[in-house]
Amino acid sequence: MKKIIQIAKLELSLLFYSPIAWLLILVLFIQMALANLSAIADLQYLLGLKVEFTDLTDKLFTTSIAMGTLPAGIFFTILGSLYLYTPLITMGIISRELDSGTIKLLYSSPVKLSQIIYGKFLAMLTYNLVVVTLMSLFAILGALFINHVDYPHILVALLASFLLLCAYSAIGIFMSSLTTYQVIAAIGTFAVLAFMNYVGNFGQGLDFVRDLTYSLSMPSRAERLVGGLLNSRDVIYYLVITGIFLGFTIARLQFTRVSKSIAQQALRYVIILIVGLTVAYITSRQPMIVYYDATYIKANTITKNTQDILKAMGDEPIEMTEYINLMDDSYERGAPVNRIPSMLRWEPYLRFKRNIKLNWVYYNGSFDHQLFKERAKQLEVDTADFLSPEALRKRVDLRGEDGRLVVQLKYKGKTTFLRTFGDSDFWAKEPEIAAALKRLLVTPPKIVFATDGYQRRVDKIGDRDYRLFFNVKTSRSALINQGFDIDSVSIENSEIPKGIATLVIGDPKVAFSKNVLAKLQRYIAEGGNLLIAGEPGKQSVLNPLLDTLGVKMLNGTLVQRSRDYSYDLVTPKLTEEALVMDRGLTGLYQNKGVVTMPGVAALKEEKKGGFAVQPLLMTDAQRSWIKQGSFVLDSADLVFDAKTGDQQGAFPTALKLTRKLDKKEQRIIVSGDADFFSNKEGWRDMPKINSAFTLSIFKWFAYGEFPVQMIKIDSIDNTMKLNEAGVETLQILYYGVIPGAILLLGITLLTRRKRK
Q1: Cα 514 from chain centroid?
Q2: Same domain, yes or no, for 129 and 278?
Q3: What is the pLDDT of residue 261?
Q4: Which of these, 751, 746, 735, lies nearest to 29 by C-alpha position?
Q5: Shared-domain flag, residues 42 and 135
Q6: How would you class 730 by CB atoms within 10 Å of its CB: exposed for 0-12, middle for 13-18, buried for 19 or more?
């Protein structure tokens, strides 16, 4: 070890007495300063405008996403440039010895070849530490000016940069051992490092080639580490690459001393490569990987609820099959060239359940064979393994999925679909994935909509119908994608299904027949959950049923004074009882969020149904009243008229009814408006909480089983104590003082060497 350190010291003295080392350090620092300080200036300006940001550590240093005026994080950005700095440093580390002949002196000295290489590599490690130390000066900015900076995340990002530099250095040392010409060594190192930077983009459409090129792609692994997920697989990968090229270098120098046949030399290199790749392969197997999420908010880790779902699945495997239709626009997302990102999306789940099997099935979604051939030719796709429509139908029934890319999950003989969506994110996120996984464990809650009495439908897109909140398969927020089953029933002609989460009666327009009323009363008596949503003017239709519950829909229509909106648009607020129903509404309650109800009747408890009744929504007593009789909204402003029976005050527009029945809590909600969860209100352009309130209602009906709650840790590094003058001071320091100090130190050392 002493000899290794002596060689390292000698190499460092040569390295830092070279202008190239100082120049490269200076250029790297200035490059980072230009990118990082401009981002800090933009962020300070936006924060001064009261623009809210969260997780500032990630946004400034480690994120891979550019956000408007803010570029990607500085440590992520610099990964793509690090390979440019290594070749000029390593080009002479051995080729200089070969050219001058001093290598023969090393051969004749009592020093092993391995010690020579390790000593020179130790010198490069030290140089890399100097580079990382300069990079850490930017992390100090975060420590000084970001409140509650996420230190572990930044440290892992610096470790990723160091590992990448060390691997590059080992490659550079090997290339330097191949020639006596330093320029050729530099060019060769540039070529190899450029190849390993961009090789991950090649051959992604071919299975074997894809896996090979991805395994050779070095920055992609560092990007994961910079994202805050420290894992043994990627760390060992960089150590293996470093070891392989150091081994190559030792073998190369040995072959210059001892004559060996080309076959023997090749065998030596192959053995080193095989040993290294075997170690990398074994340690990349899922059971062998150890993870540490360095981010404060655990951004790379699925929530505890999702972990519990995977744990409950035990040792039984999960099979996930992605069905990709060549004829659909979503094909590009699932094409073989995007296979690696598709696999990486499942890694957070594989971390907690090792036996998830991923499959990809491509098929022809058109019965027009000529059209299929033209599409395949246009996209340059080999369709030899594509399933025909008939073969696909025998395997899986995708009718109703509109030919879009969809994932089928299979577990213990049960299956469910995980869909893709029409928004910019496209792929399912953790809430949808967790809901799909949980559907395989438990009986999914079913929401059934009654269709008698011209009630509103869950399968229609009309303004007053309910498809948007419940049944749009391309909408991730629709309840069908949050774990629920959606169905309809004609109570007149069929029995109400047993075991459903709730029955929805939405705006019946004609009186219930004796048969329907009897079935509904029996359903209620047996403890069935129920959502009844009525409209003003339909009191006579609903009150016979509500009378069974001890609730009454009052005559008249609630109206509300407004400067901007029609008086029949009432905006009640949440009550504290709404928080008892769902604590997730707390933030909306505190921010005084409103539910839009266009045309709503007031409700009243009659105290005779045996239910505990609590209001969920209440109107504003100062602005709203019950208007009796008919009125015209666009003729003039409405006025309160007590003589005609108008009633001023705060009135409930939605009631929650509960009672214990056979060890189960029966749950019923009555609303004086049937529009608040309609398609039109979903699209209304005004601040409202209709979606969240509707979701909470059906979460309550599902007894909290669905949607699966995503409890994430809130970031705390959300503010920065830096003003405009502070930014200018940093610019002077990082654009002038520190680069000047580096330049001055380099000139001083070089001058002293020249004098000697």
Answers
A1: 52
A2: yes
A3: 82
A4: 735
A5: yes
A6: buried
Cβ of 712: how many Cβ atoms within 10 Å? 12
Q: What is the arithmetic mean of pLDDT over 261-277?
A: 89
How far apart are alpha carbons 45 and 55 in whole angstroms? 17
Is residue 456 located within the same domain as residue 431? no
Q: Are residues 735 and 590 in the same domain?
A: no
pTM of the model: 0.87
**Strand 664-671 versus strand 652-661 pairing type:** antiparallel
pLDDT, tens digit (0-9, with 9 covering 90-100), for 326-378: 999 999 999 888 888 888 899 999 999 999 999 999 999 888 888 989 998 89
Structure tokens at 422: 């029409």
CATH number at residue 415: 3.40.30
Residue 221: CA count within 13 A, CB half-sphere: 26
SS (H, E, C) 126-144: HHHHHHHHHHHHHHHHHHH
Domain for residue 358, yes or no? yes
Same domain for 472 and 378: no
Q: Which domain holds residue 384?
A: 304-439
Q: Are 179 and 95 in contact (CB under 8 A)?
A: yes
Nearest-angstrom CA–CA distance, 463 and 466: 8
Q: Is residue 710 part of a domain?
A: no
> Which residue, 744, 739, 754, 745, is CA-closest to 29?
739
Q: Rounded distance, CA 667 to CA 521, Å?
A: 14
Please say whether the beta carbons of 574 and 693 come within 8 A.
yes
Between strands 356-363 and 318-325, the pairing is parallel
> How far is it, in rounded angstroms, from Cα 403 to Cα 59?
37
DSSP result, 267-281: HHHHHHHHHHHHHHH
C-alpha–C-alpha distance, residues 395 and 390, integer Å? 9
**Same structural domain for residues 269 and 185?**
yes
- Which of 439, 462, 477 is the endpoint of a domain? 439
Q: Each residue of 682-729: pLDDT tens digit?
A: 888 889 999 999 999 999 999 999 999 988 888 888 888 888 888 888
Torsion of CA 370, 371, 376, 379, to 10 degrees: 150
For the chain, the C-alpha Rg in angstroms (whole number) is 34
579 & 636 share domain: yes
CATH number at residue 610: 3.40.50
Residue with tokens 């019946």: 508
706 lies in some domain: no
Last residue of a domain, one of 439, 454, 473: 439
595 in the same domain as 492? yes
CA–CA distance, 270 with 265 (Å, rounded to integer): 9
Phi and psi, residue 110, nearest 5°: -80, 50
Joined tokens for residue 507: 């705006």
Is 713 a domain residue? Answer: no
The C-alpha atoms of residue 466 and residue 456 are separated, in whole angstroms, by 7
pLDDT at 474 over 70: yes
**Number of structural domains, the chain?**
3
For 467, counting Cβ atoms within 10 Å of its Cβ (0-12 exposed, 13-18 middle, 19+ buried), the class is: buried
Q: Which residues neighbour 574 within 8 Å (Cβ) at sequence distance 6 or greater?
A: 585, 588, 589, 593, 595, 616, 617, 689, 693
- Phi/psi for 316 (5° steps) reads -70, 135
Contacts of 353 (CB under 8 A, 6+ apart): 310, 311, 313, 318
Number of CB atoms found within 10 A of residue 75's CB: 28
**Structure-token pair, residue 526:** 């047996």
Q: How far apart are CA 382 and CA 405, in angstroms?
A: 18
- Distance of alpha carbon 239 from alpha carbon 234, whole angstroms: 9
Two tokens, residue 51: 């623009």
Report helix, strand or coil for 654. Answer: strand
Residue 285 CB contacts under 8 Å (≥ 6 apart), including other chains: none
Burial of 265 (0-12, 13-18, 19+ CB in 10 A): middle
**Residue pLDDT, tens place only, 205-230:** 666 666 667 777 777 788 889 989 99
